[in-house]
């Protein structure tokens, strides 16, 4: 239970923490206010939905939760596109990104907590595992923060470039969930890179959280992922050049 | 187009997306999958009705299948899969990975017809 909790909670927390660090770096001011507001909003939304989780999971032939997550990824992607094309990292879209990701992470953690909390045998392992995972996640987040800080200091545009893998991740996650619900056709895996980087390995978990790494992607997932990267690269580049020309 | 017409059109499209698929049942009791080896046909769209008979929730997880699905305690969920290539696709319960393990065995279509015929 202990090791499993560490693995599971780290896997859920990491995408949120990596995005949170990126959003913090994009904020020129009010970082503490942003952090506080995003935590409060995400927590409030999770608490608001908690009593309805059982009902939510049974909606749409048992796909209610997946459809909610697809909506979160969609909203997140739109907010990230606004950030990519905006003059300076605006406050509200960044808040929307973190709130949407926080909702996904919070619901998943809440569901997992049902197996540990209140269980005499597993309760201690659950809490200890959660604390350890929080420590691991925060350590990675601190390193990520300093890496992005260095990138920003050297070439500020690189920070905008880091939005692209985050956007591609939202797309591939939403597509995978839509396939899971049967709303999109599934397909056979194009390759299996699991022997090189397993999704269960430390590197696999990090890459998954960073750009939505899938060891066995199918055609729809790969196309969606690539299209997001290519189209948003072009869009971001156009906006950046226009801003440079205007001297902003 | 009015809102009602748009909703009606949308309602007509949904059954096309979720077309008829052969259904298989996978139950979970005492954190064990039953059957632990589930045979399904290759090259076909299928659905698996996942029935959790435990009081605790469980997450069906399979990396090769790209599926991750939470099923609350004493409830059920549907997993849409395929068409899959013949082979073995391991899966496990993310919340109890030590005990909840299984394999989806995807049988080539010709072989599947024979199995069906024998049954």
TrEMBL record, chain A:
Alphabetical keyword list: Membrane, Transmembrane, Transmembrane helix
Record's keyword annotation contains Ligase: no
Membrane-spanning ranges: 6-22, 34-55, 67-86, 93-114, 126-145, 219-240
Protein name: FTR1 family iron permease
Automatic annotation (TrEMBL), chain B:
Lineage top rank: taxon: Bacteria
Pfam families referenced in this protein's UniProt entry, alphabetically: Cupredoxin_1
Location of the EfeO-type cupredoxin-like domain: 7-106
Protein name: Cupredoxin domain-containing protein
Organism: Rheinheimera lutimaris
């Amino acid at each position: 239970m202990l090791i499993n909790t560490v693995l599971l909670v780290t896997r859920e927390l990491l995408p949120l923490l990596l995005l949170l660090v990126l959003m913090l770096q994009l904020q020129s001011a009010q970082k503490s206010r942003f952090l506080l507001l995003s935590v409060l909003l995400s927590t409030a939304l999770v608490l608001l939905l908690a009593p309805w989780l059982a009902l939510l999971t049974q909606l749409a032939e048992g796909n209610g939760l997946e459809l909610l997550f697809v909506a979160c990824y969609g909203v997140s992607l739109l907010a990230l596109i606004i950030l990519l094309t905006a003059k300076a990292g605006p406050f509200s879209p960044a808040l929307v990104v973190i709130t949407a990701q926080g909702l996904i992470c919070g619901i998943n953690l809440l569901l997992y907590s049902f197996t540990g909390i209140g269980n005499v045998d597993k309760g201690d392992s659950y809490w200890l595992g959660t604390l350890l995972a929080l420590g691991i996640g925060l350590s990675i987040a601190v390193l990520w923060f300093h890496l992005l800080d260095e990138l920003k200091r050297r070439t500020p545009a690189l920070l905008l470039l880091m939005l692209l893998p985050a956007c591609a991740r939202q797309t591939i996650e939403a597509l995978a969930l839509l396939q899971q619900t049967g709303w999109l056709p599934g397909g056979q895996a194009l390759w299996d890179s699991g022997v090189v980087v397993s999704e269960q390995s430390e590197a696999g978990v990090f890459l998954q959280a960073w750009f939505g790494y899938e060891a066995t992607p199918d055609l729809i997932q790969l196309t969606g992922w690539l299209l997001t990267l290519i189209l948003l690269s072009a869009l971001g580049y156009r906006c950046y050049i226009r801003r440079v020309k205007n001297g902003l | 187009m009015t809102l009602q017409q748009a909703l009606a059109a949308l309602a007509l499209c949904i059954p096309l997306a979720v077309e008829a698929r052969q259904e298989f049942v996978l139950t979970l009791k005492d954190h064990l999958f039953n059957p632990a080896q589930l045979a399904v046909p290759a090259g076909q769209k299928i659905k698996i009705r996942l029935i959790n008979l435990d009081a605790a929730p469980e997450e069906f997880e399979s990396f090769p299948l790209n599926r991750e699905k939470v099923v609350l305690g004493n409830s059920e969920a549907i997993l849409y899969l395929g068409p899959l290539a013949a082979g073995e696709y391991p899966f496990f319960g993310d919340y109890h990975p030590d005990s909840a393990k299984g394999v989806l065995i995807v049988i080539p279509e010709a072989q599947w017809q024979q199995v069906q015929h024998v049954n």
